[in-house]
Specification:
Elements: E1 10-15, E2 19-24, E3 30-32, H1 34-42, H2 46-50, H3 55-61, E4 77-80, E5 88-91, E6 98-100, H4 104-109, H5 113-122
Antiparallel strand pairs: 1-2, 2-3, 3-6, 4-5, 5-6
Length: 128
């Protein structure tokens, strides 16, 4: 499976018994299903093991929003997290797969005062 944001290949990564994701070997982007994301948010240290890409690279690739689902090949919807509006990601309307740039899952998992400031500065995604 190819990464939707760079020429890299998506590799299967697991953590524990319930978590399987696809992570780009070049940019560190993560592709997962919503139920897996819920498990990732519950599992301690999952952000350290699974979201190992460079957040600076992820920040640059966050500007690319028109991508196709690496699983289905159809255009993904641009969306954002309703609780942390500065976290923008893409979701497939067919398979519901979600693509997070490097560093976004780690940011999503921790909700701090700094995140409130980021919400004000960056805000909700205008493309949705």
């Amino acid at each position: 499976m190819r990464c939707p944001k760079c020429p890299g290949e998506m590799e299967t990564k697991t953590y524990g018994r319930k978590i399987t994701i696809h992570r780009c070997c070049e940019c560190g982007g993560i592709f997962c299903q919503p139920d897996v994301l819920r498990e990732m948010r519950r599992e301690q240290m999952s952000e350290i093991v699974l979201d190992s890409g460079d957040p600076k690279v992820g920040g640059q690739l966050d500007k690319i929003g028109d991508i196709n689902c690496p699983e289905c090949g159809i255009a993904m919807d641009k969306t954002y997290d309703k609780n942390q509006t500065h976290i923008w990601y893409e979701q497939c309307g067919q398979c519901e797969g979600m693509y997070f740039d490097a560093g976004e899952f780690s940011d999503l998992k921790s909700d701090t005062f700094l995140d409130r400031i980021k919400d004000i500065i960056k805000g909700a995604r205008p493309d949705t």
